[in-house]
Every structure is written in C-alpha cells, then in structure tokens.
Amino acid sequence: LSPRQKLGLKGTFESSAILDSLYTGGRDYSKKGIGLWYQYQEGSDIPLFINKSNIRVEADFLKTTYDATQEKFDQIRYFLFAEHNFNLSGNHFLNVKAESALLSAKNELSTNEIFRFGGWNSMRGFNEQSLISDFYAFAGAEYRYLVNDQAFFDLFAQYGQMSNKALGISPKLYSLGLGFNFFLPVGLMSFQISNGNQFGNPFKFNEIKIHWGILSRF
C-alpha cells in the first residue's frame, strides 16, 4: 500500500499432537484456513523506541479437525496489536500499547489450541505464557525517561481481561512496575520488575517478577 502500510493474504496449516497421556485437557487436531493481515509501522527518530507507531491486525477463517473423532468445526481467530510513543516534553515520553486476541468456535476448545500470554512482552508481572484463554485483551501506559540515546528508565501500569470458557473464568488483571532499558550490540536489552495479580486479590511482595528480554530489528 505504501512504505508504512502493508496488506497481505496468508494461509494457515497447523497441527498438534499430545505426547503425554496424562495431559487430559488437550486433543490432537489439525487446522487449515486463510486469513488477512494489515500492518502500519512508522519508525521512531529515537532508535531506542524502534517504532513511533506500530499497528498489526490479523483475521483467520479456520477449519479444524479433531483426530480422535474426525469432527470438523469452523473457527474464527483474530489478533490486534497497537502501540504509539508520545513525546510529552524534552526527554519525557509516554508509550501506550494494547493487544487483544480471540478464538471463536461453536465447539469446546481444547487447552492446547487456545492462547497463552503473560510475561515480559505481554502482561507483565505474570510467569511467561502462564495465562491460558480463548480471549484476552490488555492495555498499558508506560512513562519513559530518556537518559541518553543509549538508555531509558520506565514506569508502567497495565490492565487486562481474559476469558477461558472451558474453566468458566473471566478474571480482570493488573500489573505495575518499573524497568531499565539500554542498547547492546545485539539489540535493546530490557529489565523489568513488576507485580501482576487479579483484581480483588491482595498485593504480595513475594509475587514480584523480574523479566528481561532483547528486542532486535532485522
């Protein structure tokens, strides 16, 4: 469409096999389908932030076959990600980010085909991919103080919702924390100290998590 915008068509071919007989929540299945995706990216004048704006939208129309029963079901899956960096003044910035995904089907979904999220690059304050759901959405605001062109500090807060129909749960989540980010030859190194929990549960210091990761541009 343009240097900043891309639109594409994609095919999905996916299969999953349960190797552990004690894993009763999962089923062997195969998926195939077609989908559309759209991406908008605007690079940042500040290399530390990588993008000033980044939007990604995906929609998939799937046909799923469960091996044990040979049942076939139609499913719809979507994914949405959006991020923007605002310059408040001088070295002060605000990063706003949101992400959501849904897998919709008339049949009961197995544990091994629904989403896993949580951790450094999604809902912080939770163990990596420890949150299992057929729907999730979270958004966050992150204040960033740019020390120089090689490092910045951040303070952040996140709010999220998820749903797992098989378990009958739909908790509301929050996360608070701070971090330090700096450039290495391999990319942007990020350290985050955070605490995440369900609303209504007491804050516990022993549940504080330390996340770290590296972002690289190819």
What can you see in these coordinates?
This protein has 218 residues and is mainly beta. It has a single domain (5-215), classed as Beta Barrel (Porin). Helix content is 0%, strand content 65%. It is built from no helices and 12 strands. The protein has strands spanning 5-16, 29-43, 51-66, 71-89, 92-105, 115-117, 131-133, 135-148, 151-163, 172-184, 187-198, 209-215. A hairpin with a 2-residue loop joins strand 4 and strand 5 (92-105). The radius of gyration is 19 Å and the shape is globular. The mean pLDDT is 90.
Residue runs with pLDDT of under 50 for 5 or more positions: none
Strand order of the largest sheet: 1-2-3-4-5-8-9-10-11-12
| Biggest sheet details | 10 strands, antiparallel
Q: Alpha-carbon distance between the termini? A: 21 Å
The SSE order reads EEEEEEEEEEEE
- What is the CATH level 1 assignment? Mainly Beta
Global geometry: globular
Helix % is: under 10%
CATH homologous superfamily - what is it? membrane protein fhac: a member of the omp85/tpsb transporter family
> Structural class of the secondary structure composition?
mainly beta
- Classify the fold: give the CATH topology: Porin
Chain-wise SSE layout:
Blueprint: E1 5-16, E2 29-43, E3 51-66, E4 71-89, E5 92-105, E6 115-117, E7 131-133, E8 135-148, E9 151-163, E10 172-184, E11 187-198, E12 209-215
Antiparallel strand pairs: 1-2, 2-3, 3-4, 4-5, 5-8, 6-7, 8-9, 9-10, 10-11, 11-12
Task: Characterize this entry briefly.
The chain is mainly beta.
Provide keyphrases for this structure.
218 residues, Porin, ten-stranded antiparallel β-sheet, mainly beta
